[in-house]
Amino acid sequence: MESKEFHIGLAMGANICQNMVLDAYEKDEPLMIDGKPYFILDAEQLLEQMLDSVCR
Question: Is the pTM value of this prediction over 0.70?
């Protein structure tokens, strides 16, 4: 396989993964990895979650 083709395929694969993560975040759905759900939080959501856990 030619190096240029490999790099194009790698960039396309990274783009697909990025779109999957963004899509899960925008739909507020978990990103499933090996059957485990992972939720993507933005900075504001993470700060709110941390404050909630500290202020209980």
Answer: no
Nearest partner of 30 among 42, 38, 18, 19, judged by Cα = 38
Q: Which pLDDT value is given to residue 2?
A: 81
Count of CA atoms in the C-beta half-sphere (13 A) of 51: 6
pLDDT tens figures, 10-45: 999 999 999 999 999 999 999 999 999 999 888 999
Number of domains in the chain: 1
Determine the structural domain holding residue 37 and report its residue range: 3-54
Tell me which residue has tokens 């396989």: 1
Cβ contact 24:31 at 8 Å: yes
Q: Is 20 in contact with 31 (CB distance < 8 Å)?
A: yes
